[in-house]
Amino acid sequence: MFDVFKVDREKQEIIIDEKLEDISIDQLQDILPSHQPRYVVLSYRQEHRDGRISYPLCFIFFTPRDSHAELQMMYAGSKIALQKEAELTRSFEIRELEDLTEEWLLEKLGN
Fold first, then answer.
1. 49-83 pLDDT, tens per residue?
2. pLDDT one-digit tens code per residue, 36-45
3. Which of 6, 26, 29, 99 qualifies as a cystine partner to 17, CB 3.0-4.6 A?
4. φ and ψ at 11, to 5 degrees?
């Protein structure tokens, strides 16, 4: 499950952009806009070395380097409020879409 959020510039509020199911992290690269920031909340199936399976709720803040400075500031300012409201503790930031891979997420989760 992936929920993609964006900031509505006119209303100055965070809204759901897309709800996605049955896609991989790598497929998410093709869905996210390459020049606009987004927040992604996902429940990720993580298989541990000892065989346990967990589903950590992860928050990814994607902010492309070449997006407008105004957008970057707006998203950065709203990020903490969204994290607190949704009680998201596993928080990661990424600047380049091509870095958003399963390997990257597993490394961040410490697997």
1. 899 998 889 999 999 999 999 888 889 888 888 88
2. 999 999 988 8
3. 6
4. -85, -10
Length of the chain: 111
Which residues have a Cβ under 8 Å from the Cβ of 68 and sit 6 or more positions away?
Answer: none
Residue showing tokens 């596993």: 90
**pTM, whole model, 2 decimals?**
0.88
Token code pair at residue 95: 């600047």
Residue 37: CB atoms within 10 Å: 24
Tell the residue number behind the tokens 């987004």, with chain if given: 38
Could you tell me which of 30, 16, 84, 91 has the C-alpha nearest to residue 61?
Answer: 91
Class of domain 2-109: alpha beta
